[in-house]
Amino acid sequence: MSDSHSDSAFHIYMRQLICGLALVLFCGCAHHRLNQPLPPGGAGNSAYYFHTRKLTNNSDDLIVILAFSGGGTRAASFSYGVLEELRNTKYMVDGQERSLLQEVDLISSVSGGSVTAAAYGLYGDKAFDLLDKAFLERNVQRKLLFRTLNPFRWPKLWSTTYGRSELAADYYDEILFKGATFADLNRAGGPYLAINSTDVSTGARFDFTQHTFNLISSDVESYPVSYAVAASSAVPGALTAITLKNYSTNGPVDMPDWLKAAAAAQKGRISRRARELLGFTDGKSHPFLHVVDGGVSDNLGLAPVVDYLQSLPFSKNEQEDMKKLKSRKVVVIGVNAFSSPEKDWETKESPPGSISTAAAAASQSLERNSWNTLDLVREGFEHWREELAKQKDVKLYSIYLSFTNFKDQRDQRFFLNLPTTFFLPAADVEKLCHAGHLLLRENESFNELLRDLGAKNPTAK
């Protein structure tokens, strides 16, 4: 081999080596999308707050709150069916026909339910043309696995500031959210979203709203929707935590009027919750928050409703707002896609393995916590009902949907045995959507609401 040819091959090799090292170094420096600090002067009244929202085509006479649980594609599909049923349900207001879906004011969501909530909040009715193909019928789990196993992505994943949840967030953004931030969500004019996650250090619920972002002096409007959804569905162990920077050392923290009073009181859960929230304001001791699946702290998505109801006695602002309430009907629909796979452990002498035992214990703990949350919501409703009754004739409708509502045991077993994954066969997705239609349509409280509204559903038999 000639010297010139040898030199040429050596130079090519060196160029390839340098390019490879540069790629590793570049990807190894990959970083998560950190949240941004509040601008000077604070968030402003046009920020992503619930109390400043002006919804179009929304009746003042009716408040509708939806809560979507976790459960992967199972939860996303079940809640999607409920949205479709609300869209199909029509009633007359001032001589004009409107759907119950147009009346939704707030959606609080966890994990898989956050996918559906965010898609509808961002796209409105267009979500019904997008979500099934973009997410529900897509094997998201396999795509994420392939991306994780792709050697070209390993340098990124080796970074200490970019993990599997950031990879998932970027994928969600690619297939569904298209770069949208909470500013886009605010401009969309749809229902207000509370996308819930859990602070892994304290176990406290952390939602992606300006109300909570104020506690860390951060701007939620510049934050990507895909990252909030990824945090809400970041199952510990399978996915990594999403990191948020705490800017509360930058200056005075804007906090709700009830927080310090509730924290100083000895009122059980709401006092503990207030102290948790106050902990977020300590940016010196906690300069970063690492958040994971919202189901760890509340798998129903109903905790924000509980917090509001229990904070009322401590908040003069909220009490004044309640006096101005024009609504005569308040509707809360909880959509719980929990699973309970059949086990035969009690028929065998040998106990289940450690992994199976740990998974079952975690599942049972989540379910017990969900029932406790549901009981707190019901108790809070009764108190709220009493307070509202002092001022006006207000009726509350509590609607709770789960697969145990099926009368047929075979249907119950089928849905309760569906796995918690981000992929299900198209036939199962279709059945879950239909379950959302059917269980809402057959719910006694929902039918009472329809009678009171004079509403109709063209798909009902």
Describe the structure.
- The protein is an alpha/beta fold and 461 residues long.
- The protein has helices at 3-28, 72-88, 112-123, 127-136, 140-149, 154-158, 164-177, 182-188, 210-213, 225-232, 259-264, 269-280, 303-311, 316-323, 354-389, 409-416, 426-442, 444-453, and strands spanning 36-37, 62-68, 90-93, 96-99, 104-110, 192-199, 205-207, 218-219, 242-245, 288-293, 329-336, 395-402.
- Strands 2, 5, 6, 7, 9, 10, 11 and 12 form an 8-stranded mixed β-sheet that branches.
- The longest helix is centred in the C-terminal third of the chain and has 36 residues, at 354-389.
- The radius of gyration is 24 Å and the shape is globular.
- The model is unreliable at 20-28 and 355-361 (pLDDT under 50).
Structure keywords:
461 residues; two-stranded antiparallel ribbon
Q: Topology, pairings included?
A:
Blueprint: H1 3-28, E1 36-37, E2 62-68, H2 72-88, E3 90-93, E4 96-99, E5 104-110, H3 112-123, H4 127-136, H5 140-149, H6 154-158, H7 164-177, H8 182-188, E6 192-199, E7 205-207, H9 210-213, E8 218-219, H10 225-232, E9 242-245, H11 259-264, H12 269-280, E10 288-293, H13 303-311, H14 316-323, E11 329-336, H15 354-389, E12 395-402, H16 409-416, H17 426-442, H18 444-453
Parallel strand pairs: 2-5, 2-11, 5-6, 11-12
Antiparallel strand pairs: 1-8, 3-4, 6-7, 6-10, 9-10
Summed up:
The chain has 461 residues and is an alpha/beta fold.
> Approximately how much helix is present in the residues?
40-55%
Estimate the strand proportion.
Answer: 5-15%
Q: Could you tell me how far the N terminus lies from the C terminus, measured between alpha carbons in angstroms?
A: 85 Å
The major pleated sheet works out as: 8 strands, mixed
Overall pLDDT confidence: 84
SSE sequence, one letter per element? HEEHEEEHHHHHHEEHEHEHHEHHEHEHHH
